[in-house]
Write a structure and sequence with these properties.
The protein is an alpha+beta fold. The protein folds into two domains: 3-112, no CATH class; 126-483, Chorismate synthase, AroC fold (4-Layer Sandwich), CATH 3.60.150. It contains ten helices and 25 strands. It is globular, with a radius of gyration of 28 Å. Residues 1-88, 112-120 and 498-508 have low confidence and may be disordered. Keywords: Amino-acid biosynthesis, Aromatic amino acid biosynthesis, Lyase. It catalyses: 5-O-(1-carboxyvinyl)-3-phosphoshikimate = chorismate + phosphate.
């Protein structure tokens, strides 16, 4: 058996050869190897290698050090030695140093690394464990889209399924959204054959057709206040000037496309419905008692351009957006989202609580600044006796709660009630009013941003929120079914994840 530790350099890695003695290995005493490598990018400089220590222990604290714990045979003796080697000498001197570290039970050697196959890791652009989504593309690039990995096979799927939500998200819908004209027509390039998913990665792409790079000439020199321009430059030392690159809301096209697939899975296999709507624009707040979450429909939400289910408050919200739009300013708002018919048992204790996963997902959307679950901050004004959701048995023999201040989740796990949350979105940062800012070379200046931007993001954020909630729930559904529903231990409480009636609809 061989362990190879890589990468130490582009060409070489350290190889550990455990040699089993006649007395056999001692599996209870692992050897901990601590290595620190500092490799200069200057080819003319010497590349130092340091083995900090090679020791026997049960545990040790460390900082900024690679740690490897291997249950290999005990070495009869341990020695440590710092060593150096010239990068151009093929590490010839290093081999002799490694031989001095060897023992009767352990041999260290150096060998050339074999080239690895290409691996793509989209750091920060991938979400999910079982239902994984990677988005790609930028606002003013050739296009945007997503790759969906983990979608079940034999699911009926076409571009039309995604296009419905993409049309709800696209720009140029009305006077209260950005005037940028994009059809956002999607194309499925892989993962679907003859109308059915194949179980392989689904590649979805949407071309950009209405870019105006010249609108960003002034913003290439000065940072937009409260925008990602400055922080992207601070982190990467470079940024995409046109449209904000990955920080643009256009990135969410991939999320919405993937979310449409997730929503179809949830609806078909569990009957879960996810609906979001605008509940606040600036100072116009929709009273909660005007919306019945048990009977709310998509038609009610889509009956007006602001996506508020109450017509009277919808007009007030539209007027609030119009008032700032004509002045070149912007306002924020709140989107409320619900998930009906969610089964019990989704989510995990401690770090993977369902509300924590939902918060992470929706707060990754552009312009989000707040998240409230169930009773939220208003619950802090109640006592325990006022806030607790008491249990009862309904007419179908099912355990329910009389109230739902927990928002459908208790202890990080869904309880079968309606899941609901609120997400706050800040005012659009790119506005047509004069603002003070600085340039990249740290000179103070004034900026009037050009371009086409939403005076309020919340009407178009509605399908984005639905998509992220769907991605969380389908990922959690797959995890729950794999862990707990193959062998349920309490059939009275553990409801079936996949009703037989729904499974019959899936073609085989």
């Amino acid at each position: 058996m061989v362990w190879e530790f890589v990468p130490w350099s582009d060409e070489f890695g350290l190889t550990i050869h455990p040699i089993v003695s006649k007395s056999g290995p001692n599996p209870t005493s692992p050897i901990f190897f601590f290595f620190s490598f500092f490799f200069s990018q200057q080819p003319n400089l010497t590349a130092p290698f340091h083995i900090i220590s090679l020791c026997l222990c049960s545990s040790i604290s460390f900082s900024q050090t690679l740690v490897y714990s291997l249950p290999i045979p005990m070495a009869s003796s341990v020695s440590t030695k710092p060593f150096r080697t010239d990068a151009l000498s093929a590490f010839s001197s290093l081999n002799s140093d490694l031989r001095s570290l060897s023992s009767v039970n352990l041999r260290l050697s150096l060998r050339p690394r074999l080239p690895n196959k290409l691996q793509i890791h989209a750091n920060g652009s991938t979400y999910g464990n079982h239902f994984r989504v990677t988005t790609f593309g930028e606002s003013h690039g050739g296009g945007v889209g997503c790759i969906i990995d983990g979608c079940p096979p034999r699911l009926p799927l076409s571009e039309t399924d995604m296009q419905v939500d993409l049309d709800r998200r696209r720009p140029g819908q009305s006077r209260i959204t950005t005037p940028r004209k994009e059809t956002d027509t999607c194309k499925i390039n892989s993962g679907v054959s003859e109308g059915l998913t194949t179980g392989t990665p689904i590649h979805v792409e949407v071309p950009n057709t209405d870019q105006r790079g010249h609108d960003y000439s002034e913003m290439s020199l000065a940072y937009r206040p409260s925008h990602a321009d400055a922080t992207y430059d601070m982190k990467y030392g470079v940024r995409s000037v046109q449209g904000g690159g990955r920080s643009s809301a256009r990135e969410t096209i991939g999320r919405v496309a993937a979310g449409a697939v997730a929503k179809k899975i949830l609806k078909k296999f569990c009957g879960i419905e996810i609906l979001a709507y605008v509940s606040q624009v600036h100072k116009v707040i929709l009273p909660e008692d005007l919306v019945d979450h048990d009977t709310l429909t998509l038609d009610q939400i889509e009956s007006n351009i602001v996506r508020c289910p109450d017509p009277e408050y919808a007009e007030k919200m539209i007027s609030a957006i119009d008032a700032v739009r004509v002045r070149g300013d912007s306002v924020g708002g709140v989107v409320t989202c619900i998930a009906r018919n969610c089964p019990c048992g989704l989510g995990s204790p401690v770090f993977s609580k369902l509300e924590a996963e939902l918060a992470k997902a929706v707060m990754s959307l552009p312009a989000t600044k707040g998240f409230e679950f169930g009773s939220g901050f208003a619950g802090t004004f109640l006592t325990g006796s006022e806030h607790n959701d008491e249990f009862y048995i309904d007419e179908h023999g099912k355990m329910r709660t009389r109230t739902n201040r927990s928002g459908g989740i208790q202890g990080g796990i869904s309880n079968g009630e309606i899941i609901y949350m609120k997400i706050a979105f800040k005012p659009t940062s790119t506005i047509g009013k004069k603002q003070n800012t600085v340039t990249r070379d740290k000179k103070e200046t004034e900026l009037i941003a050009r371009g086409r931007h939403d005076p309020c993001v919340v009407p178009r954020a509605v399908p984005m929120v639905e998509a992220m909630v769907a991605l969380v729930l389908v990922d959690q559904l797959m995890a729950q079914y794999a862990q707990c529903n193959l062998f349920p231990v309490n059939r009275d409480l553990q409801e079936p994840m996949v009703p037989e009636l729904e499974r019959e609809e899936v073609p085989f």
